[in-house]
Amino acid sequence: MSGVPASGAAMGGPAPLPMVGLRADAAVESADGLLTIAQPFGTVGLRGLPPSVAALLRELPGTLAGRDDLAERLLAAGGGSHDAALLYLALSRLHPVLVHAVEPLLRVVPIVRDARFEPPALAPEDTVRLSRFAFVRRAERGLVLESPLSRHRVTLSEEAMPLLAALGRPVLVKEAPEAIGHLVAAGMAVVGDAEERDPALRGWDFHDLLFHARSRSGRHDQPFGATFRFLDVTPPEPAVRRPPEGAVVELHAPCLAEAAAADPPFTTVLESRRSVRQYAGPPTLRQLGELLYRAARVRRVIPPQPGMPYEASSRPYPGGGAVYELELYLTVARCEGLDSGVYHYDPLGHRLVRLPARPEDARAMLDTASLATGGTADPQVLITFTSRFGRMSWKYSGVAYAATLKTAGVLYQTLYLVATAMGLSPCGLGSGDSDLAARTFGLDWATESSVGDFLIGGPPAGSDS
Fold this sequence. Notes:
By secondary structure, this protein is of the alpha+beta class. Helix content is 30%, strand content 24%. The protein is built from 15 helices and 23 strands. The termini are far apart.
């Protein structure tokens, strides 16, 4: 096998050097014999270190040095062999903040509290390749290699890219032992076919595992939660989107007391809930209005207030932070009292606004919905949920899209229960075509895109209604 170009020795230059340092954002302080090293996800404390070792550690944030070089600097400053031993012991306890590098190729940076960098015992003839979950992306200051399986991030230089390209296939460890060892220790590369044989990983798709890791804390050090990152950059989107232009269809607003009296008991509704794909007949416009009123209307708009610097709203289904970023679009094939076509639901005015969608796009929306049921349903009314992504991401970092999907899920259940109580036929769909939906509804895909699809039919086939 030919030499890997990323090896400095193979290119006629100096061999890559293993080095260590501390995260650039680490803060090292000493007080009462205790050395503390603070970083974004916690603090490491070391007691009993001589002043010479503590002084050396204070120099390490954002810098790199060889372990032997550190010991030599310590000895040159008047320290003894005992001090050098204490230095090595201190470094062994700094896993959450200790950077390991192979200069000039890559730096392995810990990103969580329980990060552990443990160099593997690799034989020169072992073969290694990149994990199928590893990916390269652009960060603020260059390229980084990341993986949802790793508790580290690897910053990359241009010299490292030939090695990464080579690791798309198995590479012998002896081709670049230091760099390959660091990548394996960081969880970015694997020996042999260990990953393919792991039953816990076999079922994960790349994007699913990445989404799972990044939408919860514990495996990254990125901004997370209600950070209000655009608070001083741009105003938040309004709680209720301005309805599009078009012909308006006013909807029936039921008396909730009468609806409550007519509904079956809650437990009966919950236990009888089913996904229904065969219908005795179409729903009526009056039923559609009642369903949307009970499940998705705006009950009130809430002005900005301390701790919530944006306009919010109250609706029948729960929504994270009362943001309510979801919009509802209806593609109607058959509904008594309502022309077939495509509509936007105005949740504040409780009305439908007809959209100028092409008939072929509306038909494609219904055909796609039917395919999502395995062809068992002939859709009568398709309700598509879209998300105004910017409204959610204005407040939340890291969890914005996950929160949108959770909101879509609770709206599914709300529609299921209300439709069941009303004697209609509900069916939540597990897939949809977001490009088609954007074209049909006249939306920009990156600004507002579909995240859920739900079928509503008339009474279930075989019912007495």
